[in-house]
Structures are given as C-alpha cells and as structure tokens.
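Pilot study result, target chain (158 residues):
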Amino acid sequence: MVVVAKLRSASSRSSSSYAGSSGPFHLIQRSFSSRKVARQYPVLAGLHRAMDGALLGVLVAVIMMSSLSLHWRNLWTTSYRQLEDTRDLIQKLKYTTAMLEQHLLKTSSLPASMVRTNTKEHLLFIDNPNKNSELNTSSMKPIPLHKKYGSSPVSHGY
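Predicted structure:
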C-alpha cells in the first residue's frame, strides 16, 4: 500500500506541474498580464487603453472615408458615362438634322419671287445714316425723369 501511495503522489505532482504551466508561453503570460500591469502602473495602462481607442477610431475613420471615396467615385463615373452618352446622342441628332436638311434642300425648289444672288452683282451697300447726319449735341436738353417715365404707357402682362 505504501508503494501505491507513493506512485499516486508522484503522478499527482507531475500532473499538477503540467496543469499550472501552459507550455512555453506561461512565463510571458504571467509576466505581461494586463491586470498585473494595470495594478502596478495605472497611468501606463490608461495610456495604452487611450491609444487602443485612438487607433480603433482612426481605423473606423479610414474605413468610412474610403467607403465614401469609393461611393463618390462610382457616382462620378456614372455621371461621366451619362455625359458621354448625351454627347453621342447630340452628335447623332446633329447628323440626322443635317441629313434631313440636305434632303429637304435637294427636293425643294425656290419660289418664283426668290432669285439666286451673289454679293458682287445684286447687293447694295448703304452707309450708316448716323454718320451722315450731324447731330448738334449742344442744343439737346436733358429730359427730367418724371416727364420721361411718367408719360410712358403701362405694358400689361409678363
């Protein structure tokens, strides 16, 4: 019986020594536990918590700004694509209008009252009448505002 008790106590000691240590990281976990550091150095622990919160806040801000940037880039790309489509449609409309005008001009004829002309033979150039008439600016009197706007007719509507 004594031999069995010694064997049991030896096996229980070896199992208890293995249960207390969790491998090679046992020393690191015991020496760097956050509770132990917080008790020994409360200012340093508070600073670490503040830095963790600040880093988490910066990470959230970066994620939000990158998502907004991607969203705005998508909106800009969509608008630019719509602008290009609009420009293409405008170009097609101009081309179609030009084709219709050409067809209309080819099929229509000039009325009898209209005559084809060129600038050398049929056009008359007349001088500006303000250059020929000499206005005497000294004889003109300024008109008072109450007479100028008082006698003007009132236009109705928009």
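One observation from the pilot: The longest helix spans residues 42-107. A full batch analysis is planned for the follow-on phase.
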